[in-house]
Amino acid sequence: MVFVHLYLGNVLALLLFVHYSNGDESTDPGSQRRTQSPRPVSTLGPLTRLEGIKVGYERKVQLVTDRDHFIRTLSLKPLLFEIPGFLSDEECRLIIHLAQMKGLQRSQILPTEEYEEAMSTMQVSQLDLFRLLDQNHDGRLQLREVLAQTRLGNGRWMTPENIQEMYSAIKADPDGDGVLSLQEFSNMDLRDFHKYMRSHKAESSELVRNSHHTWLYQGEGAHHVMRAIRQRVLRLTRLSPEIVELSEPLQVVRYGEGGHYHAHVDSGPVYPETICSHTKLVANESVPFETSCRQVPPTPVPLTPGNLGSFCPQVNLWECLQLGTRSEAPLPYSYMTVLFYLNNVTGGGETVFPVADNRTYDEMSLIQDDVDLRDTRRHCDKGNLRVKPRQGTAVFWYNYLPDGQGWVGDVDDYSLHGGCLVTRGTKWIANNWINVDPSRARQALFQQEMARLAREGGADSQPEWALDRAYSDARVEL
Ligand SMILES: *[C@@H]1O[C@H](CO)[C@@H](O)[C@H](O)[C@H]1NC(C)=O
Ligand SMILES: *[C@@H]1O[C@H](CO)[C@@H](O)[C@H](O)[C@H]1NC(C)=O
Ligand SMILES: *[C@@H]1O[C@H](CO)[C@@H](O)[C@H](O)[C@H]1NC(C)=O
């Protein structure tokens, strides 16, 4: 049961790496939140958001001097658009070439020995675990409650069959109904479970994400085509140049035959305890939870066995665990995702938005005991919207709902998306994530500081340089 494996590992990582941010400070996140809210320095203008109008709506835009582009609305929930011919065929080939020169790394590494070690000193009781997992509080663990935890970035993707196989191997579910009572869960011997895990090494097709990727720098001094693409994205998004220039480099991803990426959202939740590392470079704040914009592993968090139970239920368990793990990059803050298709794929490889424009969103109807709509190896055909890869086309969408004040609101659940199984050939894509700190004041501070560095220093203080260096250290990618 990989999820429990990782789950326990993560809980343990939380416990092992527990620290108090300050000896005499309260460990109640609430009190820290109140006393350490950032001081607004200046206010930034509202974040631009294109209007969707209606599905199928097309508008003409001038992004380059020698031709027009058309932006077509694909869905309103999430607010999703498509632009054919955003990149030329030569640009697509160049990006692939640059990525190959730089070298690609596996997008997801297999669970490591660290977890095994961590588990041997497990301190969280099985009862506590049970309570955290039992989302509907009916005293029983349904398959889908277990499946709901499989978004763990570093883990294996679990199917209902995998879980039942594991149950029967370690005799966790004597009545074989796929549901664990508290009694059955408590009777489970974790050592059997560890043994089972060790004897079932994951294949790459069993991971959340099966691809290779690299990052291409787009800042000052980068290849002129990379610069030109960044400028085009700037005109497309109509955001301020500071925001776009201070975002992540271009991520280039290769999916071989058999590659996939199960459905996920590109951005993390917004809550005041978290801080995005791209702005933390300058924000001198002490916050209990730190998340990163993909590039740096998060630092340990001040969770304790005492506050674990009381904190986690307030947020998604997965998000809570992510904040506390060291070996996984947490979900970043990404205001927008701009995805480019770099080649025509022979078979499969669509981008699926399983709940696009669904009337309502309900996690438990997404993840059922038998069909998990997030599973892009098996159930892409059941998703509401699929975009077929076509060389040069860009799609982009907003990962957050507006907050009504021109800044970032809640994560848009409808932005859930994944890469369907590539059945034939290879699929190449690239991603530009536009990073915005959910705290407007912190984003303002960040931009001011980066501007100051650029004014005062030489080449070494280029904001892009600072960020790029941080990215170059990134190994663990969700
Ligand atoms: C950061 O905050 C600490 C304590 O709050 C203070 O001592 C330090 O001078 C600050 N650093 C900067 C660069 O503002
Ligand atoms: C990719 O496919 C589209 C049709 O779907 C075609 O118009 C285009 O020429 C193809 N591009 C390449 C480089 O094969
Ligand atoms: C999609 O919408 C329908 C109608 O409101 C609803 O019954 C279903 O549960 C929704 N699906 C998901 C995954 O939320």
From TrEMBL:
Catalytic activity: L-prolyl-[hypoxia-inducible factor alpha subunit] + 2-oxoglutarate + O2 = trans-4-hydroxy-L-prolyl-[hypoxia-inducible factor alpha subunit] + succinate + CO2
Entry cofactors: L-ascorbate
GO cellular component, one term: endoplasmic reticulum membrane
Bilayer topology term: Single-pass type II membrane protein
Localization per Swiss-Prot or TrEMBL: Endoplasmic reticulum membrane
InterPro entries per UniProt: EF-hand-dom_pair, EF_Hand_1_Ca_BS, EF_hand_dom, Oxoglu/Fe-dep_dioxygenase_dom, P4HA-like, Pro_4_hyd_alph, Pro_4_hyd_alph_FE2OG_OXY
Domain Fe2OG dioxygenase: from-to ranges: 246-436
Alphabetic keyword roster: Calcium, Dioxygenase, Endoplasmic reticulum, Glycoprotein, Iron, Membrane, Metal-binding, Oxidoreductase, Repeat, Signal, Signal-anchor, Transmembrane, Transmembrane helix, Vitamin C
Cross-referenced Gene3D superfamilies: EF-hand (1.10.238.10), q2cbj1_9rhob like domain (2.60.120.620)
Main location (coarse class): endoplasmic reticulum
Keyword Cytoplasm in annotation: no
Top enzyme category: oxidoreductase
PROSITE patterns in the record: EF_HAND_1 (PS00018), FE2OG_OXY (PS51471)
Signal peptide residues on this chain, from the entry's feature table: 1-23
GO molecular function: calcium ion binding; hypoxia-inducible factor-proline dioxygenase activity; iron ion binding; L-ascorbic acid binding; procollagen-proline 4-dioxygenase activity
Pfam assignment, any one: 2OG-FeII_Oxy_3
Enzyme Commission number(s) of this protein: 1.14.11.29
Function according to Swiss-Prot or TrEMBL: Catalyzes the post-translational formation of 4-hydroxyproline in hypoxia-inducible factor (HIF) alpha proteins. Hydroxylates HIF1A at 'Pro-402' and 'Pro-564'. May function as a cellular oxygen sensor and, under normoxic conditions, may target HIF through the hydroxylation for proteasomal degradation via the von Hippel-Lindau ubiquitination complex.
Subunit structure of this chain's protein: Homodimer.
Protein name, per record: Transmembrane prolyl 4-hydroxylase
Taxonomic placement: Eukaryota, Metazoa, Chordata, Craniata, Vertebrata
